[in-house]
């Protein structure tokens, strides 16, 4: 595909960083991991970041820390990747969905409050997804979470570098955890920071950060203050496992790549914002097509996705026909996401109706969005889209 809907950007600096890490002393947990964690946390304004093997592992770690389980469920958006809810099922927790705003595909305070009023089991955590890089109303969701005695978690896999305002109008970075208890990121190949696979949890609570680090590494603690049965004080070989843990470690090699990518995050966000502005200027007059709304100033979108809302019925063509015609002309497109309550796994066990999510899904189509797109590329993509969508 000439222009896939997304594509990773690997520079000579990235390759040099990986090569250096490969010839270092550590391949798994070494200095690159610690340095990445520190730099990522600093970039977002969070005190702690725990790097782990992927975004799904990050969600699982966050849900374990939130003590999700059979009697303590998750409330989340149905318009997200499978992992947001599946990680709760890995804890044995029930999953309930709140509806979304049909325009943005995001949870709103009203839909979350309505869903909480209806859930049968206690909800331990609300996970809000910043779909495509557009931040949800974290300040209002915090108030709702407090009123229902549950944690607020950001699935910020699409939104590193996005900002939002608090009630006083002060801007915060997604993942700074000024309102959420934890935020979860993915460093999958097509995300803003690409490591192939990778993830992180950011948070403020130092004890919870230690717990997450322990669960990430088999539940092993080498900290004497955690030990229940030390054979001698400060035994240099000794560790204890007090609870179940996993191998969710990220490697030094991946973190070397991540550090190099992180250095370009601001530049990559600027390029994504420029691409979004270009699309907004050149696609805003096509019949039966709506463009994604901009967040109110001074909030900043992270533009992981640029999703059109197309009224396929009015256009008289199916989504499949449009996708195939775009692909034939070299332009990739994708549907993000098939709502989770449509999946066979959830059909029997979750609440519905979710008309906002169904309406969002019926019209959504994401078009190419990645920093390498030049003006010439964009001119070509826009020309193809205009031709294919001509009524
Ligand atoms: C919104 C969202 N949540 C969670 C994940 C899971 O991340 P990963 O693929 O790194 O496990 C992804 C990645 O695809 C995602 O887009």
Account of the protein in words:
Helix 3 crosses helix 4. This protein is α/β, with parallel strands linked by helices. The radius of gyration is 22 Å and the shape is globular. It has 2 domains: 12-98 and 106-262, Aspartate Aminotransferase, domain 2; 265-388, Alpha-Beta Complex (Aspartate Aminotransferase, domain 1). It has helices at 12-22, 31-44, 55-65, 82-90, 109-118, 138-147, 206-216, 252-262, 265-282, 312-315, 319-328, 344-347, 355-363, 375-388, and strands at residues 48-52, 73-76, 95-97, 123-129, 151-155, 163-165, 171-173, 182-186, 199-203, 220-221, 240-241, 289-290, 306-310, 364-367. The strands form 4 sheets. A 7-stranded mixed beta sheet has the order 1-9-8-5-4-2-3, with helices on both faces. Helix 6 links the parallel strand 4 (123-129) and strand 5 (151-155). It has 14 helices and 14 strands. It binds pyridoxal-5'-phosphate (PLP).
Condensed summary:
This protein is α/β, with parallel strands linked by helices and 391 residues long. The chain contains 14 helices and 14 strands.
């Amino acid at each position: 595909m000439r222009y896939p809907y997304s594509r990773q950007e690997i520079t000579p600096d990235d390759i040099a960083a990986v090569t250096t890490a490969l010839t270092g002393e550590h391949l798994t947990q070494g200095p690159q991991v610690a340095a990445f964690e520190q730099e990522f946390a600093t970039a977002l304004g969070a005190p702690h970041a725990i790097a782990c093997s992927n975004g799904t592992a990050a969600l699982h770690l966050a849900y374990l820390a939130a003590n999700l389980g059979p009697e303590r469920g998750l409330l989340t958006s149905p318009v997200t990747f499978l992992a947001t809810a599946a990680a709760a099922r890995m804890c044995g927790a029930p999953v309930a969905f709140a509806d979304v705003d049909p325009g943005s595909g995001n949870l709103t305070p009203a839909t979350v409050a309505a869903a909480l009023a209806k859930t049968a089991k206690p909800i331990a955590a609300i996970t809000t997804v910043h779909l495509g890089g557009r931040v949800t109303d974290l300040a209002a969701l915090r108030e709702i979470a407090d009123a229902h005695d549950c944690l607020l978690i950001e699935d910020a896999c699409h939104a590193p570098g996005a900002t939002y305002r608090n009630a006083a109008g002060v801007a915060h970075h997604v993942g700074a955890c000024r309102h959420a208890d934890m935020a979860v990121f993915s460093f999958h190949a097509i995300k803003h920071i690409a490591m192939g696979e990778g993830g992180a949890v950011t948070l403020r609570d130092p004890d919870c950060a230690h717990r997450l680090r322990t669960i990430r590494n088999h539940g092993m603690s080498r900290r004497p203050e955690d030990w229940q049965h030390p054979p001698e004080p400060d035994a240099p070989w000794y560790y204890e496992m007090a609870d179940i843990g996993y191998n969710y470690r990220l490697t030094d090699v991946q973190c070397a790549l991540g550090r190099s990518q992180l250095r370009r995050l601001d530049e990559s966000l600027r390029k994504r914002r420029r691409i979004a502005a270009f699309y907004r200027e050149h696609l805003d007059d096509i019949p039966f097509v709506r463009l994604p709304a901009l967040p109110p100033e001074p909030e900043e979108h992270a533009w992981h996705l640029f999703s059109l809302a197309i009224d396929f019925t009015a256009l008289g063509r199916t989504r499949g026909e449009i996708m195939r015609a775009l692909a034939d002309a070299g332009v990739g497109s994708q549907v993000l996401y098939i709502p989770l309550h449509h999946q066979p796994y959830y059909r029997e066990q979750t609440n519905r109706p979710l008309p906002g999510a169904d309406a969002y899904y019926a019209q959504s189509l994401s078009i190419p969005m990645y920093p390498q797109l030049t003006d010439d590329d964009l001119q070509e993509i826009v020309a193809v889209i205009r031709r294919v969508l001509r009524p």
